[in-house]
Amino acid sequence: MEIDQNTNTSIITFSRNIFIPVTNICRNNCAYCGFKRSTDDKQAYIMKPDEVENILHQGKDYGCTEALFTFGERPQEDPEYLKRLRVIGYGHTLDYLMDLCHMAIKKGLLPHCNPGVMTYEELAYLKPVNASMGLMLETTATIDAHANSPGKVPKIRIETIENAGKLHIPFTTGLLVGIGESRDDRIESLQIIAKLHQRYGHIQEAIIQNFTPKPGTKMAKHPPSPIEEMIITVEQAREILPDDVAVQVPPNLVSPEILITHGATDMGGISPLTIDYINPEHEWPTVEQLRKKIGNNAVLRERLPIYPQFIKKGYFSEEIKELIYKLADGDGYRA
User: Fold this and answer.
1) In a domain? residue 332
2) How many domains does the chain have?
3) Is the distance from CB of 331 to CB of 308 less than 8 angstroms?
4) Grouped pLDDT means (10 residues each) for the chain, 335 residues
5) 228 is in which domain, residue-wise?
6) Which residues of 112-128 are buried (b: 16+ CB within 10 A; e: fewer)?
7) pTM assigned to the model
8) Alpha helices, DSSP H only, in 66-218?
9) C-alpha closest to that of 212 among 204, 199, 223, 228
10) Residue 329, Cβ neighbours under 10 Å: how many?
């Protein structure tokens, strides 16, 4: 845990972002997901470029530094999705995402993309226009909640995280707690994340996210993760993960103050503009509300989507170098 030299208290970080769910069409069928839609569903969509540009423009006005682009995984496997994509002028999702990232950079926002599992070549393609990228490991266990979800095979997800390491991409991953895994499974998942970071040095943060049931899903009546399990998992994460990997908890899903005392060091992205489209029933706290929750035991500092140590290492492309230096202070936090 980093210490603020002026106050001699621990530093808790967050980023100010905009959440852009480019499409909710997804090949996976996770039992807990309320975000995914099939193309025959009236609520299925692909955001159009002008819609994204409008959000980016507003995000810049709100003082955000991060454009968080999320997707349903490999939606192009659905022919109907491809038809919709072609209507807006693209033949492949990653080409569209690439242009959206360029749009964000021009607006003064650093992209962070979460398109699901990707190959080495796909990660390499997106790397120059991303300050960081992410993929939740969730669990190394084979669980019922991931039945009929080809992208949730642990081996495939681990391979994506490892390929990001080979490419020196600052990376976010993490666990989803309470979806059918055991405590031993969580320990194994954290150990794998730790080994990947020890080998490649690329993991910025591990999110410890609690399951919350969504209406209309197969797990709608499944109990949410109790705080006791979150405390145990945060403690395990802090013990197993290297010290330079932040332990992140979502402050809109769980009250963060108790988890900070057990090892949490980051609050993730907080948006003053957009909702959490994955958990829309849970509002983001404001920065001031978060500061009050943390209290006097820690200093809240805003960071960019790329952590300070990765700025110092130069883990970014020439394309976003100027913007990173414009947004960062001398310590690598938000200027």
Assistant:
1) no
2) 1
3) yes
4) 65 97 97 96 97 98 98 95 97 97 98 97 98 98 97 98 98 98 98 98 98 96 97 98 98 93 96 95 94 86 98 97 98 97
5) 16-327
6) bbbbbbbeeebbeebbe
7) 0.96
8) 79-87, 93-107, 120-126, 154-166, 183-200
9) 223
10) 12
